[in-house]
Design a protein that fits this description.
Blueprint lengths: L14 H17 L4 H10 L4 H13 L5 H14 L6 H10 L4 H11 L5 H18 L5 H14 L4 H12 L1
């Protein structure tokens, strides 16, 4: 690279740098939706300067192509309908890991996870059924319940929901 041929990723906010970054961002968004923080991390890894990244992200937000609330709601709906059910805590943790703000996560969860806990219990029972079948005949009921409890807790279900699911499976 000579002095006249600057790398478009670090080109100090030039139109070429912004366009290159925008193309990279759009390619990433074509594959799947991203949170703002995820997209920022990926563009950083591609060595785009902060000013260029910020400008592109702001533009994408203003056009509606990048929206943490919409991303979080879609993510919650996907995780709620997955063949491997997970609990509210797990979804919250996964969204936090993707850089979504806590208040956005709470707002997204309201529409998908109802607070009465019944659907959460149904998901927990559905998740635990195969595990319960594999451990209940092992002889030691206490150990079997412990294994199912840990399995459900690992999937993000609360302690209360884990206990209620095990009681439902025992019936």
């Amino acid at each position: 690279v000579t002095n006249g041929d600057m790398d478009p990723r670090t080109g100090g906010g030039s139109a070429e740098a912004v366009e290159s970054c925008r193309e990279a961002a759009l390619r990433l968004l074509e594959l799947r939706a991203h949170s703002i923080a995820e997209l920022q991390r990926k563009l950083t890894a591609r060595k785009y300067s902060r000013g260029v990244r910020d400008r592109v992200v702001t533009d994408l937000q203003s056009t509606g192509l990048l929206n943490d609330l919409a991303f979080s709601q879609a993510f919650c709906e996907y995780r709620a309908s997955c063949s491997r059910p997970v609990g509210r805590r797990r979804v919250m943790m996964e969204l936090r890991k993707r850089g979504v703000a806590q208040e956005v996560i709470e707002e997204a969860l309201v529409g998908v996870w109802d607070d009465d806990g019944e659907s959460e219990l149904e998901r927990a029972v559905a998740a635990a059924q195969s595990k319960w079948r594999s451990v209940k005949g092992s002889g030691d009921a206490f150990k079997a319940k412990g294994k199912v409890y840990r399995f459900l807790a690992g999937r993000g279900f609360s302690g209360e929901t884990c206990r209620a699911a095990i009681e439902a499976l025992e019936e």
